[in-house]
Design goal:
The protein contains eight helices and no strands. The chain is an all-alpha fold and 213 residues long. The protein starts with a helix and ends with a helix.
């Protein structure tokens, strides 16, 4: 029971981090910038230029070489560079944690042995993920600014991430970008949870059919 409980509690962390990792890709940035309702830059930068700068920011938080290019670009102030270094440090913790937790989760899941128990845990884990994802979905719809500010104040120095409208970080990553990214993560997490629940249901059904045979 303890092992099953640990597995169930691990599912939200693993599925959310999986979705976050997919959001930190050039694919997501390109998809976001391709939307017709993506806000224009008030200071006249074209969408293509902003897209390239946004990709530069992505590379900066994912690699040392990218951070060097980011600093050398001349687009960002020292305060913006400091924040992106903070983001890079945060990601250097949570992404390895995702890989480690995924390995632990898979190992514990296989060690259950019984198809029925694996199926039950998959369904319960998927249900827990559903509950958490829907809570954040409704909070995002009701007051996304509160969620955004609360997260940043929790993870970063409360005074290190606030910028002026004309700062490049806000020009290439406007609030709509982060709102859409959050919804992307939530929806992808719900899809992953539905997949787990489907697999869990099928495993229980297979086990039941075996017992009847």
């Amino acid at each position: 029971m303890v092992k099953s409980g640990v597995i169930i509690l691990l599912f939200p962390f693993v599925l959310v981090l999986f979705s976050v990792r997919l959001a930190f890709t050039e694919f997501f940035i390109e998809w976001e910038y391709s939307k017709e309702d993506f806000p224009e830059d008030r200071w006249g930068l074209s969408k293509d230029v902003r897209l390239n700068i946004a990709k530069l920011g992505l590379r900066a938080v994912l690699s040392q070489q990218g951070m060097r290019e980011f600093k050398a670009s001349g687009f960002f102030s020292s305060r913006e560079i400091k924040h992106m270094e903070d983001v890079k440090r945060f990601l250097s913790i949570i992404f390895p944690a995702f890989y480690l937790l995924s390995a632990i989760l898979f190992t514990l899941l296989i060690s259950l042995g019984s198809l029925r128990e694996i199926g039950r845990v998959l369904m319960l884990g998927g249900f827990l993920v559903d509950v958490i994802a829907f809570v954040f979905f409704f909070i995002s719809l009701m007051d996304y600014n509160w969620l955004f500010v609360g997260f940043h104040n929790l993870v970063f120095d409360p005074y290190s991430w606030r910028f002026r409208d004309e700062d490049m970080l806000l020009r290439v990553y406007p609030m709509k970008f982060w709102f859409d990214a959050t919804i992307f993560v939530i929806v992808l997490t719900l899809i992953s949870a539905a997949f787990l629940q489907t697999v869990g249901f099928l495993l229980i059904k297979i086990n039941r059919n075996r017992l009847r045979a």
